[in-house]
Amino acid sequence: MKALSFCALVVALGFGSAAAQQSPATATAAAPSVNSAWQLLPQDDLLYLDTDQGRIVILLAPQFASEHVKRVKELVKNRFYDGVTFYRVIEGFVAQFGVPEHEWGNRAKLTPMKAEFSWPVRGGDPYLLVQRPDLLAEETGFNQGFAVAREQNQEWLVHCPGVVNMARANEPDTGVADIAIMMGQAPRHLDKNMSAFGKVIWGQYAVNRVRRGETADGGVIGSAAARTVIKQARLGSELAADRQLQLEMLSTTSSEFSQSLAERRSRTHVFYQHKGNGNMDVCYPQVPVRLIKAV
Fold first, then answer.
1. Helix (H, G, I), strand (E, B) or coil at 190
2. Closest residue by Cα to residue 160 from 138, 139, 132, 140
3. What residue numbers bound the domain in which 61 lies?
């Protein structure tokens, strides 16, 4: 009975509500919402990675890193990512896919990109404050469904689990095409050091199944045959309607989302003996995403 009660607690607090936590076998479809708190995600900003471990869907964020999103969309439309592999995977840290430098071959050279680590705070953005001060910034909050930090009128995406960035060399403006997915923990030492441009919102089960490399080798998997393969990468707008996932995300400025944060802060459920101090890590609450029936 105690285990059942704890499971009920997990559901009550919403930890199981994000679609990214669900597998195809457990995901449930809801009717299209008439509640404006739930927002239908545009297919042109959804990147579908069909891997040999399952489908992963990334929500791109052109409002924050426009040039990186533009580059990724161009590469997807040119089928750059079809057949590439997750070649550097470190347990509890990162799953990186693309083409290792020594395997580039006769591919056309791409111009390295100027970093998009941060941007000026925009007063008109729908922002929800979560924590001030934050351990690593003046404050943290949510902006259009993404966890962000702010300091000295600058804003940047926080490297919560599931966030994706563009891999680079030591110099800032050296990102080209390889993409890294954060996994296992929140590597916030990468904040304002990497160009983050989206996050995984569906198919976390597939990310969890990506084949790992050895820590001693920096996570690099030398044999291509031993790596997880991306069979196809497509924008949702390129897919036939029956291949698209109609996904809604709960607005982070909605009363529903604010209420869920308040519940997490107060820990009012009888399970909790220690109620905490009211502070919150911005990576702790997951923004709910749900599958709806196609119209």
1. helix
2. 140
3. 2-292
Give me 12's structure tokens: 């009550």
pLDDT of residue 82: 98
Give the count of beta carbons closer than 10 Å to the beta carbon of residue 169. 11
Nearby residues of 203 by Cβ (< 8 Å), 6 or more positions away: 20, 49, 54, 55, 56, 57
DSSP string for residues in 79-134? TTTTT-EEEEEETTTEEEEE--GGG-TTPPP-PPBPP---EE--TTS-EEEEESSB
Say what the pTM is.
0.90
Contact by Cβ (8 Å): 143, 179: no
For residue range 54-84, list pLDDT tens digits in order: 999 999 999 999 999 999 999 999 999 999 9
At 185, which CATH number? 2.40.100.10
Distance CA 112, CA 135 (A): 32
* H-state helical runs in the chain: 2-12, 66-77, 204-209, 255-266
- Tally the domains of the chain: 1
Query: Which tens digits make up the pLDDT trace of 231-259?
Result: 999 999 999 999 999 999 999 999 999 99
